[in-house]
Amino acid sequence: MKKNIETLLSHFAEERDEYKGAVVPPIFQNSLFTHPSWEHIDEAFDDRVDNLIYSRGHNPTVRIVEQKLAAITGGERALLFPSGMAAISAAVLHCLNQGDHVVTIKNIYGPANNLLNSYLPGKMGIEVTQVGGETVEEFENAIRSNTKLIYLESPSSAVFSLQDIQGVVALAKKHGIKTAIDNSWASPVFQRPLEMGIDLEVHSVSKYIGGHSDLVGGCVIGSEKDIKEIFVREFELLGAKTAPMEAWLVLRSLRTLPIRMRQHQENAMAVAEFLENHPKIALVRYPGLDNFPQKELAQKQMTGYSGLMSFQLATEDLEKIKAFFNSLKLFKIGVSWGGHESLIYAPAISYLKELKPEQFESMGISLGDMRISVGLEHKEDLIGDLGEALEVV
User: Fold this and answer.
1) Mean pLDDT over all residues of the chain?
2) Which one, of 286, 271, 313, 303, lies nearest residue 162 by Cα?
């Protein structure tokens, strides 16, 4: 019988009889595994992806988490990484060789943008075309004979625009192009790209999957073939292993992922509706709102909405913007998101340092754009905090 996500996260891949009936698996905090004979370890090296040899490769605590992640996303296999960027880099490098071409969107995560537009062109001669991404035709027009990867992030960073995942997948398969997507915003609870045909799904595990702001990690999920190839190349050779303690913390977090996501959604909807109707807010970008420009697509490919959104203050006065930003009490200032706590950040702070002026302008954001991660506090308290801070604008 097919199990629902909540049940999978509580029980799947946990062989409790092997751990003396412990309801929580132990942490295998060891660097290596010994073998009874020459023949045994010799055989283990024939399949080092699945056999226990050294914890830089395979570790039981890590493997439990990887099995759960594959199960809840509809993937065949998953790999944990020590950060979201390690996962993104591994997925991208897996798909590319020197001189290849990538099509991606303009509003991707800043470090991922730097990887594709700065690091890889210089190191590998990779060519990159960035598109708005709101129509499949944009991707089709950008494809070249050497295009090997279409990299998506839906919803996208800062402006939360969507890409038609199924439409892009159909286009990519027609041309024999690999597809990868950063699905951190929606989490596996609210969006399942692998079931729509995406080849590789990546997550910053630090965000909703971790959910407690006490770990940093990433993951790549896909087919058995792709993940095994990533294991013996990008994963092993670059040494991007996850420590057992971090994996155990992810395991702890996964058990409450669905219920946390539902609460993030409830709080975020209340906050988004408050902001949408406030006279000092010019624009709210949140796919859950009824007037979101791509609402039909959002309902088609997502089953819910997380707690991350952005809004634009109805002023370009930097002093007023800073006054609002610094007046918040419950929304703490920080760069990450997806944890239990509510956070605020102004994308212009880092984007103006990371991007060329023309790239920043093309993203469609301004000094008055604020990104908030709505946490698990009471929604009325969060609305009250925003309301008081807006009085200074």
Assistant:
1) 94
2) 286
